[in-house]
Structures are given as structure tokens and as C-alpha cells.
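Lecture 7 notes: from sequence to structure.

We start with a single chain of 78 residues. Read the sequence below before looking at the structure.
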Amino acid sequence: MVNSPSDARSVFNGYSDGRPLELTLSNVGLDRDAGTASYAKIAVHDSTITPSGTGVTVTPVPGGGPLPTCGFPAYPAL
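Now the structure, written as C-alpha cells:
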């Protein structure tokens, strides 16, 4: 969870059906799980993101461990 802006989205786009994006999402937890995808082969384990779209294949994979915690320092004032 990262306190993302309300319109934040994830984009997973490969080049074409013959040259897809290949990616594994393991222990991914986002506060905004909206997104788009095309031409991608995506393996998932314990992920809040489940991409879908033209030429997208999502395959569950085994894995272990909890979602990692994230922290970000405050952006310095200008």
C-alpha cells in the first residue's frame, strides 16, 4: 500500500502477440489495482493486481511468504 493518487493505474503492455511482455507478480499489494494490459504473459502469486486485456494470459504460480511492507520518505519541500 503506497497511498497512490486516486487515478493511479498499472500498465502492462507487450509489443505484439509474437513479442509479449513476460512478467511475474509475486506478493504485490497496491492500494490502487486498476490498470490495463495487452500482449502479456503474466504469472501471479498473492497479488492484488490481476491484469486483463487483448492477448493477455494470467497464470497462477506457487509462492510463499507475506506481502512485503513499503515505506517512502516524505518528499522534501521546495
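The mean pLDDT is 84. Keep this in mind for problem set 3.
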